[in-house]
């Protein structure tokens, strides 16, 4: 929650083979938002996390709520 509020950043689990450019394009296309920066890390268990910082004119908390709402509709 701290990353969302303080850094305007969303965190995703992504494919290990995905690079930063691919992640940025996918987030932009799926959620129709501008991405400022992408940082990645591979966890010890082999999963890859992407920390996606949004452009200043987007609020990560609003986007997270929208994504959560869409996930509820799909399930």
Task: Annotate the secondary structure layout.
Layout: H1 2-7, E1 9-14, H2 20-31, E2 35-42, E3 48-54, H3 60-74
Antiparallel strand pairs: 1-3, 2-3
Overview of the structural elements:
The protein contains three helices and three strands. By secondary structure, the chain is an alpha+beta fold. The protein has one domain (2-74): RRM (RNA recognition motif) domain (Alpha-Beta Plaits). The protein has a three-stranded antiparallel beta sheet with strand order 1-3-2. Residues 71-75 have low confidence and may be disordered. Belongs to the universal ribosomal protein uL23 family. Pfam families: Ribosomal_L23 (PF00276).
CATH homology-level superfamily = RRM (RNA recognition motif) domain
Q: What portion of the residues fall into strands of 2 or more residues?
A: 25-35%
User: Secondary-structure element order, as H and E?
Assistant: HEHEEH
> Cα distance, first to last residue?
23 Å
- The count of DSSP E runs of length 2 or more, i.e. the number of strands, is 3
Sheet with the most strands?
3 strands, antiparallel
Low-confidence segments, given as residue ranges, are 71-75
Structural class: alpha+beta
